[in-house]
Predict the 3D structure of the following.
Amino acid sequence: MRIAVLSDIHANLPALDAVLADTGAVDAIWHLGDIVGYGPDPDAVVDRLRTIGAIGVKGNHDAAAAGGSEIEWFNPDARRAMEWTRATISARTRAWLDALPQTLVHGDCTLVHGSPREPIWEYVTSVPVAQTNLAVLASRLGLHGHTHVPVAFLEEDGRIEVVSPVDGSVLELRGRRALVNPGGVGQPRDGDPRSSFLVLDTDADTVSWHRTAYDITAVQSAMRAVGLPASLAARLSVGL
Ligand code: ZN
C-alpha cells in the first residue's frame, strides 16, 4: 500500500490541492491534524478531505476550532486567526473537527498530531523526547506532525538516528521502529516555503519525502481579504 501522509494543512487550500495533485497514485490519504487555523479556507479544506475520504487525527488548532480551551495557549496572532476561524467555520466543519480522534492506530502505524504520549501538544524536536515516545509507542511506526519540520527519529540498536530529509529523500525502514514527521503542507517551517509531505510504502517499507510548490500569493491575498494577521501571510513566503 502507498499512503500519502499530510500534516498541518492549516486551512491552506492552494497548498492542499497542489499536494494532492503531486502525490502520484496512492491507496489512501492520512492526515496528522491542524487542518485549520492560520489559513483562510477552513471549510473548503475540510470539505476536500471529506470528499477524498482522508482519515486522521485532531491537532491543537482543530481542538481549539471546535471550541476547546487550547486557544488559551496560542500566541496573539494564532489566537486572532483562531477567533476568526471559530467565527467562520460551518457547524458541519466544527462537528467534523470535533469528531477527529486524538490517536489512530492503523496496522503498523500510530497517527498523532504531537507525540504518542501527548497527542495534542507535545513537540518531538529532540532525541531524548523521541526516545521517551518510542518507548511508549505501541506500534512500530509513529507518524506525527505539529513542528511543521520534516524529520525521522529511527531506532537502531537502542540508539536514535536522526534523519533530516530533503525533497526526494527515501528512508528504508527495514523493519526498524521510528517516529516520522512529513513536515507541513500549509505552513512549512524549515526554511523551504514549498509544501512538505511524505509517502509511506508499506510493501517496500520505505518513507519518501516530497516538496510541492504552490500559489503562495493566492493564499496570501485570501488571508488579507479576510483580515487575518499580516505576519501569518508573510511567513509563508519564507517557510518559517
Ligand atoms: Zn500546526
The chain has eight helices and twelve strands. The first strand starts at residue 2 and ends at 6.
